């Protein structure tokens, strides 16, 4: 095998990277789409229905289809999502035995699904997946099929994605393992810029010609470098804190959230240019070899999903604001429009992936799932082809559809929206910011009743979030039991709103120590202490939840 040294060193790397990325595959005649565009919403909605009506029988595919479904609908009770959870838990149990042929993929999508639903509730399973990746990393740093010595760029991408997800959810990690994976990826880049399917580390250093290179692996390799760099905080602290501070106090007042991995990351130093250099080199190759849709669907949907992931992390690495309608997105949307089945709503064209898996990848691409995970994406698309803008004060429910008409004068209209089937698709923060509880005692009491029912029994996570936040700002002792109940809500934001609301109403701003990511024991302890406090205020009260 002939060995080469990577030509040149990156000069003014970020500037060059920006120029290459910005000019890639630009097409001035493309229609501009965003994830909130009615056309995209309709495509996603039809794809979701296809997944529900045409379930896969492959366990790994079931998990990623469940993940795509939950990213859109946020409905844990859905039968498809329940099947995905069941399979993910099985995969966790299987990690205690020998690694199987596709374990890296199956474990990665399981991590993504369980973290998306509740990293707290599934902490034991997620810890098993973490241990699996620790134990199955190959000596050279990459990940691959258990029977092969060589590393696999595709499997390494999913392993790094799983590790990044665990990092974002506060699991204690060994970042030397992340660095080892990145070093392997850098070593196996092809001399011309892309990455191979299976990478061989050159014996004498430098870069060598690799076999089976192509666009899908080129994007997978570069995305892996950027994702791993984000786990190491090479691009700075990119974790977006969308959570509110203590209810009733200025937004600048935030509750301190401990990062358990701060000291661990300090043991690993990776200069930004070590990761950006190979990516910029790949971009030159990509510019010279643009992938065009011409009926060749070799791993098309896999590549589309990888493209969205890579481009989203490019924005992070370059410190750019999120672009809702980039040229690459519009190009692939145009292709997906042509390929979506008019009859079934799925993507059934053969592309080395089954129709359910192709459809899941297409949905994850269309909603910009990675951009959402990074906290920079657009809000969830509305059910039935409607969506909200930044100002939802004009939103009304008319004939079961959300429209903009007249400004809401009270919480009443907001409650109608929250009690509708499309509540998860609302801009909950804007609704809560603009809602004002009435001063009339009768009206106020009636609306508090409705909010308490929503926070206790709504299937919509968004409705429970808004209700918990408004109840917390009511400054009314009567809502305390409902907020105590909400401390055990499966949605982390509902728990945070309930906790902060209790602190505000009680004027105990330190609360009873419930952290942002509590264990079940910490939740029960906080609920017990808040009940004890409430009984000092209302000694005769009986907590029905405990009966």
From TrEMBL:
InterPro entries in UniProt: ARM-like (IPR011989), ARM-type_fold (IPR016024), Terpenoid_cyclase/PrenylTrfase (IPR008930)
Keywords from the named record: Signal
Signal peptide stretch: 1-32
Domain of life assignment: Bacteria
The protein's name in its UniProt record: Prenyltransferase and squalene oxidase repeat protein
Native source organism of the sequence: Stieleria neptunia
